Amino acid sequence: MRPEFAADVDQFVDATRYWIDLYVDVDRRTLSGVEQVRYTNHETESLTEIVFRLLPGTPGYGGSMTVSSVTVDGITTSPALTTGGSALYVPLVSPLLPGESIELGLRFEGAFPSDAADTDPPLAGYAQYGYIDRVLALPNAYPMIPVYDDEGWNVELAATFGDATFTDTSLYLVRITLPVDMVLATSGVTLDRRDNGDGTATCLCASGPMRDFGLVASADYGTVSTKVGKVLVTAYILPGDREGGERVLDYAAQSLRIYEQILGPYPYTELDVMATPTKAGGIEYPGLIVVAARLYTQVGGFFEWATVHEVAHQWWYSLVGNDQLDEPWLDEALTQYTSLLYVEHRYGEEAAQKALENVFQEPYRHVLENEQDMPVGLPVAAYPQDLYGSVVYGKGPLFFHAMRQQVGDETFYRILSSYLEEYRYGVAYPQDLLSVAERVSGQELDALYERWILGK
What we know:
CATH architecture of the largest domain: Sandwich
CATH topology of the largest domain: Immunoglobulin-like
Strand content: 25-35%
Radius of gyration: 21 Å
Strand order of the largest sheet: 5-4-8-2-1-13-16-15
Shape: globular
Helix content: 25-40%
Oligomer: single chain
Number of helices: 8
Largest sheet: 8 strands, mixed
CATH class of the largest domain: Mainly Beta
CATH superfamily of the largest domain: tricorn interacting facor f3 domain
Order of helices and strands: EEEEEEEEEEEEEEEEEEEHEEEHHHHHHH
């Protein structure tokens, strides 16, 4: 954490804490780990079970994960698997009362896909998980506890074209063993790296309050870095991508600077930008974003947009969490509109007007012309894959633009900063955003919400 935010950690004395020891065998495409978790019941009701998501085995990840043993306060127990083997229900001997804590221990193993011709399973989803083109990407490569809310434990399977995580902010201390020649970046910071003398190295990594934990590594990475205030921004680049790496570093640094000015400060000491072979334009993780390596030959355009979009997710998804499966617009549409604000603040109103037309209005016009309009406020799985982007990423930001036009620029920016301040490190739902917007503006915004989000 930056010094001025170090005290934020004190707010999380009862947050979920993960201690993970992870061993990665790149040659065999396997991983194994030991995990200790301290979980405190922050709900108003007692819990009779704790649930872990095993996301590597879901369709969008294309790997596998199994848990070989589970203990609860040191006592071995027998969990149950549901949701296609991706939700592990751990029974408790006695209910966990509100405010009480429990210690859980897990041993787990898994496999990850690669682009080797003889590898099974094949690459899946956005190719976000696996060893591909000599890049190791292992987001969420550990059993993770989902959000518990008025729906109970959130364990539904994610569509392969949307985000998969819905988690509370936690604290992580992770020890990762991997090939010694690999350059590693993770959520949080690396505190120590030791050569084990057997072809492997072990890195000790820690996070401040973060929503989940991701890691990316490659023996091919070089780096370029810059400082934005007290934040070290580092681009991890692949051979032949030096010029693209300089550009992505500039996009990330400038967007970080602008977002801090218009939204609020980024509380961490580092932001890492990784070139990976993902099929998506980019993917966000706390303190770490990936940008598709195929874009690094571009100048500006989608390369720049994808980068600044993922940086904006450090505010909308990472700092302010939401249900990315059931209410994807709450972070994606707001992140898209925040990316437009980057264009406006860096290149001026004329450039922003062109982006508004090309990125939001034109895709939505196409949807209307083809009589395919859908409400923005649906779960990811409710959309055909070819309409998800046009509706959530194209139409969705027009709600925020309409709000801005109604309340005025000054009030709109106060809405964003107030929303961030009230829900920083927490979880927000659509009504939370609407309540903040109406309170700050002193205006009724239901008509805009019903038109653009609910489709009424």
